[in-house]
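Got a spare moment? Tell me how you read both lines of this record:
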Amino acid sequence: MHKLHLMTIKADSPEDACNDIENEIVDFGNDNNWRTICGCISEDNEVYTHEDGGGFAPEKGMRISGIENMIRSWVGSFGYDAREALVKFHIDDETLSSQDWWLIKKYCDHKEHQIDFNNEKFNIWETEYRYWELDNNGLTNLIQQTDGDKRYVVFIDMHS
C-alpha cells in the first residue's frame, strides 16, 4: 500500500532538500517496505519533481495552502468505526477486548491530533502529524535540525 508522508526541511535548493531527506531515511525499508522521494514544494510555492517523481509527485501549480488542506483532511478522517468500542466503554469497561482498547487508544490519539489542525495553531513548518511514522500519511518536521536558505515540503511515496 502506498502512503504519502511529508517532511519539512531547510535546504539551499530543491535538489538538496530531496537528497537530504533521502539521507535522513536511508535506513528505512526493505524489499517489501520501500520509498521514493517524489519531489518538493518550496515556501515560495516552487514545485520540483525529483528523478522519476514516484506515485506522489507534486503537481505544477500546487501550493503550500493546498498541502495544508490535504493534511487537515488526513487528520479529519479516522479509518475505523470506534463507536461500538466507545459505547461498550461507557456502559461497562470490563467487557472490552484488547482490540477494543487498541481502537479506543487510536481514536483518542486521533482526536488529540485534531486539536492542532482545527484552529490557527496549525503551521506546516512547525506542526507534526504521525511524526516519523513513515508508513502512514503524515508530516515530520526537520526544520530545526537542518540548515539552508529556504524551507521545503518534501513528498515521499512510502510503500509498505
